[in-house]
């Protein structure tokens, strides 16, 4: 909680003077397409910038995406380019919008779980958890020890897998092809572990209100145990492969910089916040599950640039391995994997908000229940979406190449941006 | 060259040249084909993959297949493109690339043109190719292509100069621009080769050469991750093939040029090896150099590339950029410390080449899935009690079922009549099998669902019943239900 | 007349010269008459190229390839680059038709051609005393430049350096 107090004053300050010019306002109300037309039209009408000598270069309105290889799915940024320098950028989102929150209002809680898999599809386990955690909060359920451990282990494995996807694709964006395959080779091990555990490779639908669906199959925990030293070695290899490469450093050091205050006023979380030096990790600061039983550090950066975010994520993988090591050692021998959950889940009337630290930041789930089987209203705080809001600010004045570097550094998953 | 122009045209002359030209074309095409194959193989090895291995023995015919495909593909020209220039651009790029090969001497008596200004000729022609790239980018009427074209122009302006200047030392040493004479000046063992006295020139030449070729880490004009494919994004079929061909012909040319200028051409490295005919040495050297090009560039840059400065090419900034680029190059050479990271990365890459390959031979060797794998459902009509639980729990509502009264009048209840799952929307979430009280619906390990029509994804009871291979043994861990019951 | 023409054309060198000059002239005409700027630049590049070709047929290989390198390569690319970066809309401006203007132009052109033709026909061109050896003309250019013409050469290079620095300064100011 010490950190919390440290941030609070900055938060208040930030609230006092809201961030100016954030792209959010553009899309705050009404029809997104109308908002987009208006802004894009505004872009088009805007004349070229004044230049002293009367030399004038043509400005180019470029649609980056929605089918662009480096926007990680169907995300689109309209950029106004002067040569290669970005003068203005407007993110357009919603191409992958599936109305998860609205759909959820007609589904019972068990049925919503597979939908959460599809929000941040790179990190389905944490999404599962945030939903069941919110419901469990309302029901005030006791979760059996073994289920807690299984949940924690899969979430940390998931964090590693998710960061690996990020690492591989980020370097792919920057132009290196091999790291992607390095990362996916090792991620495959985690995926196979999950596959053995719950029968799916990406959308696990593993957690249930009150526990988890499957117990660990025989030998599974040993496989996780073997994985830890293997992954440590691989992390060193990753570092050797890329982290010191001068061309790489030239491309990401000092790019996409912002300070702690900006980060907080934009509501950033996860590595995007910690890279500015703010130590804020829900696993430590608002412990959930059984994180308070384990020892781990929250790495923080200090420059707030893409390079810090890069290093942070690598370090977070190491910390996750540390947690895993302890969790595997303490893993209980027997016990239930399901708590005493009612057969029909009907939370009492009321509200609950549960927030956890997903690989991308603070993912939250807010439920209003009217005592029915279905939630009256369900709302996710989706870190990718929130973190993305700083993009237009960061892009102005950068080059086209850096657009990719910055966007990749934020680490969005379009499924989560659009939900 | 001059004396052929001065001579009246003779048919015999003409045919000799035509024949030699065709032979050369075939050699170059063969080189291109296998350069691509080789490149793909090596990159594959670096990434724990096998590389092309399906077409022909060891995948040797892969490039041939690719080129054939490109040649017979539909030729699309975007409606809003500048038609004439769009067609012209690959031609402008390709012709100089091939013409540039004419001056390369392959042995002391095998060369196509003994030009006094050989180096100049090469540089001049390669510059014209760039016009083709820029034009292609512009004519495509595509903003990404335009940006790619502009980058290409800026890069060419930036790197052409160091490329030429790096050769000046050699020209001054040898006192000639004639490539054949330059090679002759390097006779007598590798310590006479130019790369030793001209080591800086050599390094600059290699770096600038890679950039001339638009290869990683200088593939700014293509930059597939940001500009998608740059200047040739709108090109397809054989026009695209011509751009590719030109690129690889230049790879051949730059590799040969490096050999000729710095690595002694056909002169044998040790006097003892003089008996080896020069004609063998040159290809061997080109091959070695090509390998180097591949590795240096592909450290691919297997590692991150494209100097950030490279893209700040707008307008008048070209001049400034040139400085940036040059600075980079010389820093690279001067400060060994700055190269350490790249070297480390290279080490990892090399190690990866011998690591275990992870490629699956998928359709040939079926993938083994763990027992819990959630594949396509298997349905057993006899077990079903038509309780409708599965249809109710299904979050995507893809199960439809109807029951009918039990034909056996003695028994009560219903039996299943129709049972359909729409696999267009089934998300294989496992909930139906979880709730089914009789395990009438269970998962299998099969996952191949692809069909030619969406309608076929609608599977009925018969199909689901017949889908009875690899049925999952453990269909539900008992715990969730047990726990729930305890509470109920 | 016809004999002379055939005789002229049967020499390879003359034929090549003829083709190159034709292309050069065509390029120049297209350059003026085309409407799209990029097309104009292409026509110009064609002219540059054929000029390079003419130099080469004249035995000035060095000058010829430098022409190709600098003009057909670098300068053309710079021009295309500039055109791409700047606005070039509203190309299709049609000037009001003035028929008598065209007539006048035609008369002027014919007169000019007549004069030139007459002068060239009547001129007696004495061949150079020692014909340049095409084999070694790079060497000769170098020798001339660094002996006889060293001062103009140096002055030129200083001038170019000044222009170069000036260009950078202008570009830099524009940027800030
Ligand atoms: S697996 Fe899920 S989506 Fe598919 S039929 Fe069963 S319940 Fe429905
Ligand atoms: S849940 Fe099982 S028994 Fe009930 S209708 Fe579905 S398949 Fe039949």
Portion in helices of chain C: over 70%
> What is the rounded Rg of chain C?
21 Å
CATH architecture verdict of the domain at 7-86 in chain C: Up-down Bundle
What's the CATH C level of the domain at 7-86 in chain C? Mainly Alpha
Q: Quick one: biggest sheet of chain B?
A: 3 strands, antiparallel
Bound ions, cofactors and other small molecules, one mention each = iron/sulfur cluster
Number of helices of chain B: 16
How much β-strand is present in the residues of chain B? under 5%
Q: So how many helices of chain C?
A: 7
Task: Give a count of the beta strands of chain B, DSSP E runs of length 2 or more.
Answer: 5
Major beta sheet, strand line-up of chain B: 2-3-5
What is the CATH topology of the domain at 7-86 in chain C? Answer: Four Helix Bundle (Hemerythrin (Met), subunit A)
CATH superfamily of the domain at 7-86 in chain C: NADH-ubiquinone/plastoquinone oxidoreductase chain 6, subunit NuoJ
Percentage of residues assigned to helices of chain B: 40-55%
Unreliable spans of chain C? none
Concise account of the structure shown:
Chain B is mainly α. Chain B has helices at 2-6, 11-46, 62-72, 83-99, 118-139, 143-174, 179-184, 199-212, 237-262, 278-302, 318-334, 336-354, 389-393, 431-435, 461-466, 479-487, and strands at 377-379, 399-405, 414-422, 441-443, 458-459. Helix content of chain C is 78%, strand content 0%.
